[in-house]
Amino acid sequence: MASYHTDEGWWRSSWWNSAVALASVVEFAAQSGRHDYDWVIARTYEQNRGVFPAGGRGSDPIEGHFISRAIDDAAWWAVAWLTAYDHTGDRRYLAEAVTITDYVHRYWDTGTCGGGVWWDRERTYKNAVTNGLYLWLTTALHQRIDGDTVWGARATTAADWYLASGMINSAGLVNDGITSGCANNGQTVWSYNQGLAIGAFTQLWRSTGSTRYLDTAKRLADTAISSPALTRGGVLTESCDLGTASCDDNQKQFKGIFVRHLADLADATDSATYTAYVTKQADSIWATDRDALNRLGQRWSGAAPNVSDWRTQASALEALTAAGRLTG
Question: Which CA distances in Å does 133 have to 3, 80, 203?
């Protein structure tokens, strides 16, 4: 919160990262039973739901309701407002999430690769993050809107497309997206793509009872916690955490998103294995990735070179909160 710009109501200067940071704060508040951060939720909403020119909140113009040409950026804000709604019960946040997800749905396109949501307004790429977000959001709206049939139907359609899309490779890892020829593009396995799929399929199982979805979530989780592509020495590790590499401002927040969704699966299945993995992340952060001022860094193993800022803090906070949820 020391990095939060109260006058502007966000964490300068990363648009989607601010949405994830807000969700991290709200999750912490909900887990700890606190409401002294509710003003942050309201301030962020009131100061940012309007229109901003390019450069005002990011490189793209913001066109109102947290929407821009980057479909996934808008979707992260819908996640934040649903998280806020769950904590506060304020229906304006639910309404905002519906508005944003309606916008995301406009980019569901069966004309290319049989379905899926485009990553950008120019319709250049269908990728895992945008479609993982869409699947999670459609399922979440179905669960929160009484008598809904529209969002629930969209969720099952999205799930079936995701499973057939090829983004999940033969090893059970989620690559970044698909090619123009509708095949897995073999690009980097990022933890947040794996986590979004785990969370989305877990929630869809809660909604439908279909074991197909739960089996998918468990397969993705089992692979993630055992594969060196994502886990080293029991600690969640991005490819940019290795050696002398460094993670960019986006990648700094990926791991927290993964742990949030793995904790959801652990809760749904009462799995001691998943709970132990989540707890291991929190323990490693607290023991090796925390300085004297309680700043939490990018590399949860504590290895050098390490950096810390509000993005790494928000990501690590999600792991601490998730562990508290499962073991508190």
Answer: 26, 12, 12
The Cα–Cα gap between 189 and 262 comes to 16
State how far the Cα of 186 lies from the Cα of 168, in Å rounded to an integer.
10
**Sequence-separated (6 or more) residues with CB below 8 Å from residue 260:** 27, 195, 199, 318, 321, 322
Q: What's the pLDDT at 13?
A: 86
3-state secondary structure of 268: helix
d(CA 20, CA 32): 18
Q: Which residues contact 94 (CB under 8 A, 6 or more apart)?
A: 81, 82, 85, 144, 145
List, in sequence order, every residue forming a beta bridge with 127; answer none if it has no partner.
177
List, for residues 177-231, the tens digit of each pLDDT value.
Answer: 999 999 999 999 999 999 999 999 999 999 999 999 999 999 999 999 999 999 9
Cα-only R_g, the chain: 18
CA distance 3 to 47: 16
What's the mean per-residue pLDDT of the chain? 97
Dihedral angle computed from the Cα positions of residues 99, 125, 260 and 56, in that order, rounded to the nearest 10 degrees: -60
Mapping DSSP to helix (H, G, I), strand (E, B) and coil, where does residue 15 land? helix
Task: Please give the Cα distance from 296 to 2 (Å, whole number).
Answer: 14
Torsion over CA of 121, 126, 130 and 132, rounded to 10 degrees? 160
Share of the chain above pLDDT 70, in %: 100
pLDDT digits (tens, 9 = 90+) for 25-47: 999 999 999 999 999 999 999 99
Among candidates 224, 227, 221, 247, which has minimal Cα distance to 300?
A: 247
Distance CA 179, CA 185 (A): 5
